[in-house]
Specification:
This protein is mainly alpha-helical and 136 residues long. It is built from six helices and two strands; from the N terminus they run αααααβαβ. It is flat.
């Protein structure tokens, strides 16, 4: 396959294709410094105080309290993002099983009769076997 064909297939430039062909491992990612949060700068101690008093407080409640008590000009998304980074990922609880899970007790195989025109039709000659599995 030519370099130009690889470029078109993957939607990348020729430099990327040549770099990939020269080395089997991708280059290391650049480490960027953490971005500052100017909107939350003075509010982080207040948010942390709310979290120590009520660890399960929702992001919406924190945001509303910041708006009401501190008249903060902060978006819900920035508060939610800060809480998500501080708390870590939410624990995932397994879904409850409703009712009983039934296992199939009988499996039947059948060969249906299908007519696709005359017998010399290429579609009907290619279709030789069709197996259906039904769970009852």
């Amino acid at each position: 396959m030519s370099v130009r064909a690889i470029e078109r297939k993957h939607g990348v430039g020729w430099r990327t294709v040549h770099a990939a062909l020269e080395s089997p491992n991708p280059p290391a990612r650049k480490n960027y410094p953490a971005r500052a949060r100017p909107t939350l700068e003075g509010l982080i101690p207040h948010i942390d105080a709310l979290l120590t008093r009520a660890p399960t407080i929702s992001a919406r409640e924190v945001w509303e309290r910041l708006l009401d008590e501190h008249h903060a000009a902060v978006t819900y998304g920035s508060v939610s993002s800060y809480l998500r980074n501080r708390r870590g990922p939410a624990p995932r609880t397994p879904l409850p099983v409703v009712g009983e899970v039934e296992t199939p007790t009988k499996t039947t195989t059948a060969e249906p009769r299908i007519r696709l025109g005359n017998a010399t039709d290429p579609i009907s000659t290619q279709l030789t076997e069709l197996t259906l599995e039904l769970s009852l």
